[in-house]
Records
---
Amino acid sequence: MARRGPKLSGLQRQVLSLYRSVLRVSRAKEQAGGESLAAYARQELDSNRGIDRKDIQRIEHLIRKGRRQLDLFQASEVTGIRLAGSSSSSSSSGGSSGGSATSSAAGEGMAAASNAPG
């Protein structure tokens, strides 16, 4: 199989691997009737696209944050995510990425650690 495009760095491979994992979880959650995690992941990628490739600490931080969010979204009681402004009152704690995970078991929003320091 021929490889197309430039060779990817280790961090780029990690980001793409995380994104593919989110897409897999999103497909499974959508089949269960949840809202799209893929749209949230795409929004996060787009909002961080301008980060300098040499800002390794920030990129690694965002990868760790994304993995923590993925772990949260994989929980069986989480069925999807609601983006800020996509429908009724979505809870956000003041960051630019106002996503909240929705829980089918309790029927209420569960904060999606998107604004957690860390």
Note: Residues 10-31 form the longest helix (22 residues).
---
Amino acid sequence: MVMAFSYSNIPATVRPIVVSEKRSSYNAPIELGDVQEPILSAPPEVRQIIERVLQAEKDKLYMKVPRNINDDILKIIKEEVQ
């Protein structure tokens, strides 16, 4: 694609050069099943921990400054291990 411009009666030709980063080699489409596979294949005890941690994180989303999420996660893990 060539664009022509003229500046004060002097024609100029501009050849646009596309400058971009390389495309990633991991350009494969992601399916929802691929993301959830580790959760679905986990043992029931681990799945319970994951579900409770996700729920705790969702409960904190509305907060402007979510606090003590690490303490909540630690408490969940301790409860499930005992």
Note: The first helix runs from residue 32 to 40.
---
Amino acid sequence: MDPVPLSRVYCPASQRVDDWEQCRALLDDVGAASWITGGHGVPNVTLLPTMWRGSLLLAHAAAHNLQFDLPEATPVPCRVVVQGPHTYVTPRWYPSVQPPDLGGSARGRAEFRGVGTWDYTQVQVAGWLRVHRDRDRLRTEVMDQAEQLDAARLVETPHVGDAVRGPWNRDEAPHDFTDAMLQGIVGLELEITDVVGRFKVSRNRTAVDRDGVVQGLRERGRDRDHRVADEVAAAPPLPRGVQGPSTP
């Protein structure tokens, strides 16, 4: 068995999520992740559609991508970053630091004692990366992923013009076409050794401030603002006596 690769992720306890199912749900939602490996000079990174299967992450990449020009089955340390919704949060949404004449409750030294921040959800997965070129395995993994993504597309948008045809399936692709396609890719497998979810969603603020953040984000109104607002609203408050950090 290979040793566990050293993995360091800065994540305050107030923001940490260790539940693999919650972390996996974020990947299922966004669908893709950044695969990061070391190299000569700066690290290499490629954004790839990614599947989480048990204790493995699976993906595929172009065979010409030099980041993955690796000997088969030779383990390489790798980090995979799943980025969820993220957005700016202004201190003007915190009633606890705004004076009464501006709609807040702060008085004296408490007035304006706040700064903006960035709320986000993110999962970092570390482990051993192995590359494979097994055509039968690649065919199964690629087609499974393609069918899964297309089915999800129609669940999310059931009224699109092609919905009457149902989701795409592997039988539509000619065998000679898929054979040629498979020659141009390599399979990636990450054996997971560490998972850190960092959900920085205003848990260190009071309930009144969190309500202010949710209201402010919904008023701003972009898709990512609504998604972060949902995360802030759903996050449990910190246990009494636990203080979260005020900086990223």
Note: Residues 16-85+119-203 form a domain with the Pnp Oxidase; Chain A fold (CATH 2.30.110.10).
